[in-house]
């Protein structure tokens, strides 16, 4: 007749008790964060909101406008969107430059050393108008900030760097997308050599 030692019975009971112990409760999921919102938009004198009618079935063009109403500006044109996207286009052969002061206190613009900021801002498409006609897109510049959307102040500046031909007034379109929604579209008539803080807004 075989014998079962008491320590063996105790160990078996202990293992059985551990196996039947219920798992600890799962931690509750994090509270969803409200989407960022744009507040306190300020426009320079002469900058006007542009009432643009998009259409869901429209073909997207490389024109600094959200042609198909999806909240992304110029998708398919080779530059990026993100938590914030700021895109400008213009209607002459001039060399127009986009500058954006972002919540890091840094300014993103065409210079290679200034194309990125500490909070992820990146000017990923710079153009020179007819000063560089070999570029596929000569009259659009684009900057974006990845998700999560950097919150704080943004100041959009435009500079008429050079005419690249006839010295004439140039109409500039500025589109702003925040968290996948168009926050504003604006137009301004930029004069040769003029540099202006066109649009300022806060993301909260």
Q: How is this structure best described in words?
A:
With 204 residues, the chain is mostly beta strands. It has one domain. It is built from one helix and eleven strands, in the order αβββββββββββ. The strands form two sheets. A six-stranded antiparallel beta sheet has the order 2-10-9-3-7-6, with no helix packed on it. It has a five-stranded antiparallel beta sheet with strand order 1-11-8-4-5, with no helix packed on it. It is elongated, with a radius of gyration of 27 Å.
Which keywords apply here?
204 residues, mainly beta, 6-stranded antiparallel β-sheet, 5-stranded antiparallel β-sheet, 1 helix, 11 strands, 7% helix, 36% strand
Please describe the topology of this protein.
Layout: H1 6-19, E1 38-43, E2 48-49, E3 84-90, E4 95-101, E5 107-108, E6 122-125, E7 140-145, E8 152-162, E9 170-178, E10 181-190, E11 195-203
Antiparallel strand pairs: 1-11, 2-10, 3-7, 3-9, 4-5, 4-8, 6-7, 8-11, 9-10
Characterize this entry briefly.
This protein has 204 residues and is mainly β. The chain has one helix at residues 6-19; strands at residues 38-43, 48-49, 84-90, 95-101, 107-108, 122-125, 140-145, 152-162, 170-178, 181-190, 195-203. The chain has one domain (38-203).
Strand order of the biggest β-sheet: 2-10-9-3-7-6
The run of helices and strands is HEEEEEEEEEEE
Kindly estimate the percentage of residues that lie in beta strands according to DSSP. 35-45%
Question: Radius of gyration from the CA trace?
Answer: 27 Å
Low-pLDDT residue spans: none
Compute the separation of the termini in Å.
Answer: 79 Å
The biggest beta sheet, please? Answer: 6 strands, antiparallel
Oligomeric state of shown chains: single chain
Overall average pLDDT: 90
What is the total number of structural domains? 1
Mass-distribution shape: elongated
